Amino acid sequence: MKNILCCLYLLLFYPASGQTLKKESIQNKAWTKATRYARQYVDSLQHAQDIPGISVCVGNADNILWAEGFGLADLETHQPVTIHSRFRLGSVSKSLTSFAIGKLIEEKKLDLDIAIQNYVPSFPVKAYPFTARQLATHTSGIRHYRASDPLSCLQRYATVLESLSIFNKDSLLFKPGTAYQYSTYGYSLLSAVIEGASHLDYLTFMKQAVFDPLNMAETCADYSDSIVANRVRFYEHTHGKRVNATQVDNSYKWAGGGMLSTSTDLVRLGREFLHPTLLSQKTLDLLISPQLLLDGTNTHYGMGWRIGTDAQNRRIIHHGGLIDGGRAFLLIYPEHNLVVAILANMSGVTINLPEVETIAHYFFTANR
Predict the structure, then answer these.
(1) pLDDT value of residue 367
(2) In what helix (H) or strand (E) does residue 238 lie, and over which residues does it extend?
(3) Which GO molecular function annotations are given, in alphabetical order (predicted)?
């Protein structure tokens, strides 16, 4: 049944012209072979690491090439993972937020290089001014998590501004622009900047400006107290056993780690870098331009995206997310027409860049 659903889904994405179908009939043989090897590989990852469920999707500029669920979304009810299962994205949420930044730039509502108090006047002034660009590239000096942060209790922050109370009284770690320090709190503050620039709350702006135009209908906030259709259950390993992950409320970090999505929705986002429809190529290039520190050091991080090369020296942009009960990874080959997304409903698993590159490799090999 799982494979039948996958095939039906793929058929929906193929054009109807005879010439195109003839070309794709040749490609489909290659994709079938690639899918077979990739399926075996993902299946081995799942079983070797005792992961309850995985969702994977591979696409190019024109089509979804493969989308499939593995294992269980819920161990108690034996509900299977499907292509519509929603997983926690963790820090891949930052990549989604980058598109909001791009949209506001194009609408001339956001200046990346002025002090953030122009958009969030209530945020305390620090020893040095810092900007939206520096927040987006992790060079602002805003800190990351501390053990003493009040994150273990299920506290719902009613607004983005309210969630800033966790860190807004703290000093900067360094003079902005002089160092790179990964910071999810920096993205919480960035979402407040988005609200100030757009005059909408962050989640409303994301839906109207990013998710709806890109047909990402299955992407939403991970509200801990709400019924969310197709949301998976979340797990972790304790003493070698699979157990329910610790309950969390992610309202303090919607922009940096609080979103739910499907692997197919992530591929829809990634395909923007292959065939832009929402943002201009100039804006997309800005989002994936590596930030340079004041001393010229390359951080290999843009605005919500890591930039590098794969084992075959192909340029890649990517981001991973690790969160309670979840692992996410999105990998894009902008010059080689491929996007790979993978999601798991267990934290602490080894699904990193080498594993996702391996999935991509099967499709590159098949297309030769």
Answers:
(1) 64
(2) strand 235-238
(3) peptidase activity
Distance, in Å, from the CA atom of 132 to the CA atom of 367, rounded to the nearest integer, reads 41
Nearest Cα residue to 256 out of 339, 167, 171, 190: 190
- Torsion, CA 96, CA 100, CA 106, CA 109, rounded to 10: -160
The mean pLDDT of 63-91, rounded to a whole number, is 97
**3-class secondary structure, 210:** helix
Number of domains composing the chain = 1
Q: Are the beta carbons of 297 and 59 closer than 8 angstroms?
A: no
Q: Which CATH number covers residue 20?
A: 3.40.710.10
| pLDDT, the chain, mean | 92
Per-residue pLDDT at 285 exceeds 90: yes
Q: How far apart are CA 30 and CA 329, in angstroms?
A: 24
In whole angstroms, give the CA distance from residue 2 to residue 104: 40
User: Range of 338's domain?
Assistant: 2-366
Q: Are 221 and 203 in contact (CB under 8 A)?
A: yes
Look at residue 27 in the predicted model and tell me its pLDDT.
57
From edge to edge, which strands make up the β-sheet containing 220-221? 87-88, 259-261, 220-221
Model-level pTM? 0.91
Are 250 and 191 spatial neighbours (Cβ–Cβ below 8 Å)? no
Q: Cα-flanking dihedrals φ and ψ of residue 237, to 5°? A: -95, 130
Helices (H), 49-159: 93-106, 132-136
Phi-psi region of 59 (alpha: psi -120 to 50; beta: other; left: phi over 0): beta
